[in-house]
Amino acid sequence: MVLIAAAWVIGLNRMKSDLMPAVQAALPGADRFEDLDGDLYAGYGPEAQEPLGYVALGEGSGYGGPLRVAVGFTPAGEIQGVEIAENRETPAYLERIQEGGLLEALLGKSAADPFQLDQDLDAVTSATMSSRGIAEAVRDSNQAAAALLDWEVPEPAAPSVRIGIPEAALAALFGLGFLGHRPGFKRKKTVRWVSLIGGLVLLGFVYNQPLSLAYINKFLMGFWPRWQTHLYWYLLLGGILLIFLVEQKNPYCEWFCPFGAAQEVLGLVGGARVHSAGRYRGFLTWLRRGVVLGAVLIALVYRSPGLTSYEVFGTRFSLLGSNLQFVLLALVLVTAMFVRRPWCTYLCPLRPVLNYVRTLRNWSVELWKKITAEKTAL
Amino acid sequence: MEKNHRRKNRSLTELLLLGFTLVGIGLILMDTLQNLSALGG
Fold first, then answer.
1. Structure confidence by residue, pLDDT tens digits, A160-179
2. B30 touches chain A (CB under 8 A)
3. What pTM was estimated for this model as a whole?
4. In sequence order, what are the beta bridge partners of A33?
């Protein structure tokens, strides 16, 4: 707890990004910039008196937390350049965004355009949350520019609650878990498999949004996105934590974690069995706890939730990741054919996190009982 | 004899699981270091 608090404070103090390189890159041709209000710069060409254009900084909420973009405009409000000035996205997703054509698609657009996904912009496949964050940041930069330059841009829309298929699927999966956990329910095994396959297909292959360490890190750092536009994040993290704290049951790992489901399916193929690490069990438990603590601390120090989110989900479900992640994925999948859920048992960061939450919960309950007992005695 | 054989098998499985975990953590650490060095520039 002390280490986490210390890393949090260090992270808060050390991350002051230099945004100027992105500002310069967003308006090629300008060699000097005048700061107009902190979020808006006027760019001048060599020996020019009139601005060559403007660069506005805007903020949005990406997969890993807040991100900022620098948008370069001509004096008439046409976009000339877009640069990601600050981000906390998982490196593989950021690469996907940079190669996916979203930034190029913004060039030539007018500040008066809506910049809405599925309206005038297409999200990059497998990086929807990052794409949404960039679109939001561009809208924000338009507002910053319009306020000072008297451009006409669409009024920022009041956030409307976004309930789509991922949210509905998640609610249905929680519902299946609730049904399966009812005492005396006879078709528990069948319902569990339906839930696992649903999780694998929807949360895994279709939407690629399983619970990861990045979610926990984001929560710890206070990067809580708007609930209206990120209902999925709140449903997944909040639902699991709530059920875990109240019922002391883990509704996710054994029921609809897509990566757990993928391992179980492979286990069926290869005839996997539960194998214990025997005399190494204690050592491996503490080793995993150490790795998870290290990953959380590094993420907090760098204020980047996705930086140390080492799960290979992205690699599995959208073929994204580094070579090392592909090697790790292959190792896990081959082992899963012979050992039941090797990732979950030995490497997944979520179990140590949930165990830690359980310990905190039990401490709090004990403390509360002690306090109420003392009050009653008085 | 049979018991001995089973014990040997169990020891081998335990060793393999230890190897799996250590290799996995090694890969995770190397990947994290790569990410951190990319962040450093």
1. 777 888 899 999 999 998 88
2. yes
3. 0.78
4. A43
Name the least confident of A16-20, A178-182, A361-365. A16-20
Length of chain A: 378
Which tens digits make up the pLDDT trace of A297-353?
Answer: 999 998 888 888 888 876 677 677 788 889 999 999 999 999 999 999 999 999 999
Of residues A291, A325, A346, nearest to B17 (C-beta) = A346
- Whether chain B has a CB inside 8 Å of the CB on A284: the answer is yes
Alpha helices, H only, A32-164: 91-99, 102-106, 128-149
Give ipTM to 2 decimals: 0.89
Q: What is the dihedral of CA A68, A73, A78, A81, to 10 degrees?
A: -60
Q: Of A267, A127, A128, nearest to A196 (Cα)?
A: A267
User: Could you say which of A284, A298, A307 has the minimum Cβ distance to residue B18?
Assistant: A284
Chain A residues whose CB is inside 8 A of the B29 CB are 291
Q: A78-103 pLDDT, tens per residue? A: 999 999 988 888 777 788 888 888 88
- The candidate with the shortest Cα–Cα distance to A121, out of A110, A111, A131, is A131
A178 and B CB contact within 8 Å: no
For tokens 């069990």, what's the residue?
A281
Whether A339 contacts chain B with CB within 8 A: yes
Kindly report, residue by residue over B19-41, the tens digit of the pLDDT: 999 999 999 999 999 888 877 64
DSSP state of A73: E
**Interface membership of A300 toward B (CB under 8 Å):** no
Cβ atoms of residues B6 and A332 within 8 Å: no
Residue A282's closest chain B neighbor by CA?
Answer: B18
| Yes or no, beta carbons of A91 and B35 under 8 Å apart | yes
Instruction: For residue A329, give the chain B residue with the closest CA.
Output: B24
Q: Pick from A91, A291, A335: which is nearest to B28 by CB?
A: A291
Is B27 within 8 Å of A308 when comparing Cβ atoms? no
A55: part of which helix (H) or strand (E)? strand A53-61
* A26 and A83 Cβ atoms separated by less than 8 Å: yes
